[in-house]
Amino acid sequence: MVYLERIAVGTICVAVLILATWGFPRLYGALPILTYKPLNTLARYYTEWQTRGWLVSESQHFRAKYLAPDVGIVDLVLDAAEEQYYPTTTLLGFQDSGKTLILIYPDRQSLAQPFGWANNEEAMGVYWAGVIRIVSPRDWVQPAEEFEIAFKTQGPVVHELAHLLVDRLAKGNYPRWLTEGIAQQVEKQITGYELPGPEPEEILAWYSLEEMDKSFDRLPDQTLAYRQSMIMVGRLLEKIGWEGIREILKLLGSGRSLEEALYLVAGMRVEELLPSFTLSP
């Protein structure tokens, strides 16, 4: 803990020095990028400390931590992660340095607990601050399904890995709908899996850009929000392909706004990605 406290103090000192040098107005726009690395480092050390009693297994690109009930599951998780690593990093054009930490939670309730979510939360995975967290397939693969195939085609690893790579490239400087749309498109291309949701012709109205930007996780119809994000990124892919997506993420990582990056790469405004109709506030 003393080591963590020293890191925290060092991070605060660096932040104060930058603020004094740059001034607040200039700093505000670059804040996510300037704080990205120190905050991720702090979060990683804290996560490692929180799970210091967990079991550990490693593969070439991943380090998994898990509890005793998942001793028989960890090899499957690491195998799936390695199989999906190169296809995902090739699409997004980035390989993270070091080994990515994957935490395997025994059930959805234990995954929800660190984030203060309700116990009925249905998420099977989450990416946060450089760490992939997933629910053990023991908790959600149905008895009638072929266990390994179900996990590799429907499991959350590739989706959360895509979030990690977007985060690394853009250095935290992106809206939620963009990373969700990219992760769904990556998942669809690599495993063929698509989150359940209405088809575009079945939807009478869509969320506004402001709602998608500012309230994505609080929108009342999360199925619609996720489907809309996938469609918006799909429109972008049709115009600029994965190479263009990579360029946009790199520009975001250099401090450009999404509006600037989108115009420079695609010659578009963000509003042009929206479906034709929007839901009333």
Gist?
By secondary structure, the chain is an alpha/beta fold. The protein has helices at residues 2-22, 24-50, 74-92, 108-112, 147-154, 157-170, 176-191, 209-215, 222-253, 258-266, and strands spanning 55-58, 62-66, 100-105, 125-128, 131-135.
What does it look like?
The protein has 281 residues and is an alpha/beta fold. The chain has ten helices and five strands. The chain has a five-stranded mixed sheet with strand order 1-2-3-5-4. The N and C termini lie far apart (46 Å).
Keywords:
281 residues; alpha/beta; Neutral Protease, domain 2; 10 helices; globular; disordered N terminus; transmembrane helix; Peptidase_MA-like_dom; membrane; transmembrane
Strand and helix map with partners:
Layout: H1 2-22, H2 24-50, E1 55-58, E2 62-66, H3 74-92, E3 100-105, H4 108-112, E4 125-128, E5 131-135, H5 147-154, H6 157-170, H7 176-191, H8 209-215, H9 222-253, H10 258-266
The main pleated sheet reads as: 5 strands, mixed
Would you identify the CATH H-level superfamily of the largest domain? Neutral Protease Domain 2
Shape: globular
What is the CATH third-level topology name of the largest domain?
A: Neutral Protease, domain 2
